[in-house]
Amino acid sequence: MKTMFKKHGPPPTAVEDATFRIRFAELSAGYAGHPVLHQLSAGIAAFTSTALVGPNGSGKSTLLGVLAGVIQPTAGKLHHAGGRPPAFVPQRGAVGDALPLTVRQTVEMGCWGARGLWRRLTRQDRAAVDSALERLGIADLATRQLGELSGGQRQRALIAQGLAQESDLLLLDEPTTGLDPEARERIAMLLTELVADGVTVVHATHDLDAARSADVCLLLREGRLVGQGHPRQVLTPSTFARIWQPA
């Protein structure tokens, strides 16, 4: 999948495309006349975990939405190196508790993009749903209503929905926010396992423990990329003072 916008500089080379699952250059985006992202340039390496880190309002969720294809850039260039469309797991608060869905029905929604809302799931789809439920440890909750679950259980159901898409790119918005330490640790371990299995993971987070477990961090402040690299290199006291200090 390749989406082009106004050209800024040379396109990625074949070697770069083989290395990076996603590349973007001079990328800008926003909402109805309100700019949020300002000329971001970076690459997301394949088969790694990348954390988007920054204070509230820094543009993490907007960048994730652009990578997922649900927000259109206003300028710049975005390149996906191939594979299936990304699986996007929004924040838990974006999915209403009042929806009359069971856990299994919630996970099955991950197959709708390929099958459509009114088409029956195939045997392969049902196997993918079963596998996702088992992997997240919620197969025994399959008939429970989504609104009845604890925060950690509900988050696992939403991640299972993403896994059911069987994409090689998983995008998550604040997957551990509001969860207890045990639930956060379980999700962190799962993301590590997925990367080992060949999935590229990108997650927006303000949980510094989750960010430190990533392979790479992209640091955002006021919609601009102010740092990138291994967590040990970029998650430092001086960086925290620079990013979280008042504007």
Radius of gyration in whole Å, from Cα?
Answer: 18 Å
Number of domains: 2
Termini separation comes to 37 Å
Low-pLDDT segments: 1-18
Specify the CATH homologous superfamily of the largest domain.
P-loop containing nucleotide triphosphate hydrolases
**Which H/E pattern describes the elements?**
EHEEEHEEHHHHEHEHEEHH
Helical percent range?
25-40%
Oligomer: single chain
Structural class: alpha/beta
Number of beta strands = 10
- Side by side, the strands of the main sheet go 6-7-8-4-9-10
Characterize the biggest β-sheet. Answer: 6 strands, mixed
Instruction: Note the overall shape.
Output: globular
Q: What is the CATH domain class of the largest domain?
A: Alpha Beta
User: What is the level-2 CATH architecture name of the largest domain?
Assistant: 3-Layer(aba) Sandwich
The CATH topology of the largest domain turns out to be: Rossmann fold
Mean pLDDT: 86
The number of helical runs is 10
Strand content is: 25-35%
Name its key features:
247 residues, 10 helices, Rossmann fold, alpha/beta, disordered N terminus, 6-stranded mixed beta sheet, single chain, 4-stranded antiparallel beta sheet, 26% strand
Task: Write structural notes for this entry.
With 247 residues, this protein is α/β, with parallel strands linked by helices. The chain folds into two domains: 1-84 and 169-247, P-loop containing nucleotide triphosphate hydrolases (Rossmann fold), CATH 3.40.50.300; 87-166, no CATH class. The chain is 34% helix and 26% strand. The chain has ten helices and ten strands. The protein has helices spanning 14-19, 60-68, 103-108, 112-115, 123-135, 151-163, 181-196, 208-212, 231-234, 237-244; strands at 2-3, 20-31, 34-45, 49-53, 75-80, 87-89, 169-173, 200-205, 216-221, 224-229. The strands form two sheets. Strands 6-7-8-4-9-10 form a six-stranded mixed beta sheet, with helices on both faces. A four-stranded antiparallel beta sheet has the order 1-5-2-3. The longest helix has 16 residues, at 181-196. The radius of gyration is 18 Å and the shape is globular. The termini are far apart. Residues 1-18 have low confidence and may be disordered.
